[in-house]
Amino acid sequence: MKKLFILLLVVACSEKKADVVATLLAPVAFEAKLNATENALLLDVRTEEEVNTGIIEGAENIVYDENFASKLSSLEQRPIFVYCAAGGRSSKAASILREKGYEVFELDGGMRAWKDAGMPVK
Hints:
By secondary structure, the chain is an alpha/beta fold. It has helices at about 1-20, 25-35, 50, 90-100, 110-115, and strands at about 25, 40-45, 60, 80-85, 105. The termini are far apart.
């Protein structure tokens, strides 16, 4: 019985990880999925100083900080595409957004990867 429980736990955790991996997208795939998703919100969670160095056109900025979860009350339920500078903060933000029931897609490698891929920046 103990082995069955452990097996079920491993399978459940593996499935959850697979879901997150499927929503972690490289820059070209991120842009394609964003463009193909109706009513999507592009969310930049970087600081104002970072945003001033360039932003993906159409992005809304909500800084990821200790108050991030409380800043989300005005967001309607719709798919959210989130990014930061390198992926760390957007991953944390994505976890919070998923807990609140949002469908979330993350830019793998953040704005650095986006720029390295030669993607457009405003």
